[in-house]
Write a structure and sequence with these properties.
Length: 602
């Protein structure tokens, strides 16, 4: 590609032809502010905060939508530019509620930071907008239209990255609002609750449903035995809200913080990830041996499961019946562990620390009650955990390194890599190969499925049987893979799908900001954890062996099916109005039938 040389604030910069001014400025060490820009995703110039002066051009130019040109001379900090930016931000603030101290994004809000950067101390304009109701209809995502600045970042991510199209602009002019079509609630939309919108929202218009107060109350209740599990991806991100670099491995400090918060036991979801591999790997081998439905598709990501149920219910038989590690843990905690220590599961509260907002929805699914109770009571994101630690006045950086409690805190490196895209596949291959062949897998680092490529393909030789595998992360990439499978263009035996770009390390509940550079650093830390673990294969976990020897019997046993496996729901365009009847046939309820009939008549 041809190169272009231009001058920005007196500095010569050479970049590729087609580069936007905002990106070229970064090469010169100049940050041009913006509230709507996301490279390659949302380049619409709507907020008008990134305006610059370009010599020989009429008027100010939006740097996020203007390409560089040879000999172009750009000024980013003239009096006219500064005045225009201040005016744009003041106009946005005039329609924005002054609730900074009570907002979930306080001190981590791009609008707040930009107002400070521009030195705005007063807003000269007033708004008479009426207060709009806050949408809290889902267990995972809250939408506050009063704080929306119409940047459309959430729309772009939902449409272009996740291909869900749950939200978009509706209304016209000053009445424009971002949300589900026809003013419906989030629960009525096809939202899969992945939370990617919350990561890119520059303000507090979209955020996770907060359950920290409920968790505090459980901790304070002397009659409750409160245990906590932490997902693989949390340990490489939880330090970020406390000033640690992205990818800092903070496992021991996180464990110490959770103990100091008052949890009775601190366990690791990685234990259940090892159990997941035992079940899912066995399920794959059984399908290969008996001619079962292939490809087998992993089921660890609840955002992906919601997506499948909404858009690809016809592939539900291909999806592993295994619950996610979070839900396996909850079921085992309130049965196996409760029995082991003599605790009434009715008095046990299971809390999850997750990188994922969809986990909040998952734990409330009616089928997640295998223990006889709700298996997981509350899910907190990494952001919520950080808030709890700060509220308790704990100096995170000075905490000692502490270990998880036994036995549900014992895990392997295979479980740790669940946090990165390709990790579930790699962990499964390590175990499935050795169970199938009876041989030791010499090279256990399966680099073919690592990295941030949207779709990765590889093959594994199992004593003469070639296992074709694929890995997709981000639901747009998942859609591409599934469409090719359905059309017969692609043929696989095993597919890993993660809802969020980068896998769980890029989950909707991770610290903000989360971008590809940060995702890569977290991924590198995940594989560093794996490399340093004494055990790196799930079937070598001694606590998992004991679980099967004394409680479950073997993978895919009746007891493991009862506790660790699940079924799926068809969430058609009519949502919950489609259900399975007594004969196991998908059917419409009467309301949906009348709607279909009405549409047919018209």
């Amino acid at each position: 590609m041809a190169l272009v040389t231009l001058t920005i604030d007196g500095k010569q910069v050479t970049v590729e032809e087609g580069t936007r001014i905002i990106e070229a400025a970064k090469e010169a060490g100049i940050e041009i502010p913006s509230l709507c820009y996301l490279k390659d995703i949302n380049e619409i110039g709507s907020c008008r905060v990134c305006v610059v002066e370009v010599e020989k051009s009429k008027g100010l130019q939006a740097a996020c939508v203007t390409d560089v040109a040879p000999g172009m001379v750009v000024h980013t900090n003239t009096p006219v530019v500064r005045a225009a930016r201040r005016l744009s931000v003041e106009m946005i603030l005039s329609d924005h509620p002054y609730e900074c101290v009570t907002c979930p994004r306080n001190l981590n809000c791009e609008l707040q930071s930009l107002a400070e950067r521009l030195g705005i101390r007063e807003v000269r304009f007033e708004s008479d907008d009426e207060i709009k109701p806050i949408d809290m209809s889902t267990p995972a995502i809250v939408r506050d239209p009063n704080k929306c600045i119409l940047c459309r970042r959430c729309v772009a991510v939902c449409e272009k990255i996740q291909t869900v199209n749950a939200i978009g602009p509706y209304g016209r002019g000053l009445s424009t609002e971002i949300g589900p079509a026809w003013g419906e609630s989030m629960s009525e939309s096809p939202c899969v609750q992945c939370g990617q919108c919350t990561l890119v929202c520059p303000v507090g218009a979209l955020y996770e449903r907060d359950y920290t107060e409920e968790v505090w109350q459980a901790i304070y209740d002397p009659d409750k035995f409160v245990i906590v599990q932490t997902a693989p991806a949390t340990r490489v991100a939880v330090g970020e809200p406390f000033g640690l670099a992205p990818g800092s491995i903070s496992t021991g400090k996180m464990v110490a913080a959770l103990r100091q918060l008052g949890f009775d036991k601190v366990f690791d979801t990685n234990f259940a990830a090892d159990v997941t591999i035992m079940e899912e790997g066995s399920e794959l081998l059984e399908r290969l041996a008996t001619g079962g439905e292939l490809p087998l598709i992993t089921s660890c990501s609840p955002g992906w499961i919601n997506f499948m149920e909404e858009f690809y219910p016809d592939l539900s038989q291909n999806v592993s019946s295994c619950k996610s590690p979070q839900q396996m843990f909850g079921a085992l905690a309130k049965t196996y562990y409760a029995e082991k220590i003599g605790i009434d599961p009715a008095n046990m509260v299971v809390v999850s620390i997750m990188p994922c907002t969809a986990k909040k929805f998952e734990c409330q699914r009616p089928e997640m009650t295998a223990s006889g109770y709700q298996d997981v009571d509350y899910v907190l994101t990494v952001r919520e955990l950080a808030d709890m630690i700060k509220e308790a006045g704990i100096d995170f950086d000075s905490l000692p390194e502490e270990e998880y409690d036994d036995p549900l805190g014992i895990s392997t490196g295979a479980a740790a890599i669940f946090g990165a895209t390709g990790g579930v596949m790699e962990a499964a291959v390590r175990t499935a190969y050795e169970i199938y062949t009876g041989k030791t897998l010499e090279k256990i680092d399966f680099e073919e499925v690592r990295g941030l490529d949207g779709v990765k393909e590889a093959s594994v030789e199992l004593d003469g049987t070639t296992l074709k595998i694929a890995v997709a992360h981000g639901l747009g990439n998942a859609r591409d893979v599934l469409d090719r499978v359905k059309s017969g263009e692609a043929e696989y035996h095993f597919i890993e799908i993660m809802s969020c770009p980068g896998g769980c390390i890029g989950g909707g509940g991770q610290p903000i900001p989360t971008n590809d550079e940060i995702r890569q650093k977290r991924i590198e830390a995940i594989y560093e954890i794996d490399k340093n673990m004494p055990l790196r294969k799930s079937h070598e976990n001694p606590a998992v062996k004991e679980l099967y020897d004394t409680f479950l019997g073997k993978p895919l046993s009746d007891k493991s099916h009862q506790l660790l496996h699940t079924s799926y729901t068809w969430r058609s365009p009519f949502g919950s109005m489609i259900y399975k009847d007594d004969q196991g046939i998908w059917a419409l309820d009467r309301v949906a039938q009348s709607q279909v009939a009405g549409e047919s008549d018209s």
